[in-house]
Structure to design on (259 residues):
């Protein structure tokens, strides 16, 4: 088992149980206790957990907490790649039209899996994310529109009134949208009001909204809500939502695709 896979399992265990033991993890993963301690040290450096005697405990995450882009690139990388691959199938081989790519590491995974289709032409990509635009621009033959605005350093994405107005004047066929939280009652949410305004504009503008979110986001409520569950069409994730969220998604007629 690779270190990234162990890290993802440790994070899931913390989400469910609240704490983990070095000895238990060593037995579960069939590795040495020294290996587990290194895993926990690395996850603590990312702010995922807090080390305690004999193991680690979950870190309470406030509704305004948001990790920098560089840190998020290291988290759930395998899950995000699988989600990106599955979400990309929303754009079939016969598709000709426009897609909007929201900022985020999971939407970047979608872009990566769409790259062969973009190279063949017929798809116009629209985004407000600088790093994502750079990735798409590197694909020979790709058609790209970059929306400007004030760039938010934490996410390397354009935000603000000009960005929102530009999005509202568009009608993309499919939008791939990231989120920090997906909850039964609160819907989709994110820590920052400016990011929320942009995401809300994307939801209102797109003909079809595909939300990509790893299981760590399920059941979470962040500071600012930007869409109700009924506003989206598809949720692509890597684990079954719990019973409460599953029922809410079904009631809102949201398709759930497991990666």
């Amino acid at each position: 088992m690779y270190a990234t896979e162990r890290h993802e399992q440790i994070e899931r265990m913390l989400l469910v149980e609240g704490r983990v033991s070095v000895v238990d993890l060593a037995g579960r993963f069939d590795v040495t206790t020294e290996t587990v301690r290194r895993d926990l040290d690395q996850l603590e450096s990312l702010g995922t957990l807090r080390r305690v005697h004999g193991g680690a405990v979950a870190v309470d995450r406030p509704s305004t907490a948001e990790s920098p882009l560089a840190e998020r690139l290291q988290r759930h990388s395998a899950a995000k790649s699988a989600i990106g691959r599955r979400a990309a199938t929303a754009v079939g081989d016969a598709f000709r039209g426009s897609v909007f790519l929201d900022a985020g590491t999971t939407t970047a995974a979608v872009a990566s899996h769409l790259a062969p289709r973009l190279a063949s032409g017929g798809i116009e990509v629209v985004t407000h994310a600088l790093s994502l635009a750079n990735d798409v621009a590197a694909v020979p033959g790709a058609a790209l529109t970059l929306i400007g605005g004030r760039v938010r350093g934490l996410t390397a994405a354009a935000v603000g009134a000009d960005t929102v107005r530009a999005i509202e004047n568009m009608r993309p066929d499919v939008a791939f949208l990231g989120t920090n939280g997906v909850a039964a009652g609160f819907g989709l949410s994110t820590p920052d009001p400016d990011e929320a305004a942009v995401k809300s504009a994307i939801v209102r503008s797109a003909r079809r909204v595909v939300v990509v979110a790893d299981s760590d986001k399920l059941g979470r409520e962040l500071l600012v809500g930007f869409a109700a569950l009924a506003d989206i069409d598809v949720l692509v994730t890597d684990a079954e939502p719990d019973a409460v969220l599953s029922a809410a998604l079904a009631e809102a007629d949201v398709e759930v695709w497991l990666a």
In short: The CA atoms of residues 73 and 105 lie 6 Å apart. The chain has a mean pLDDT of 91.
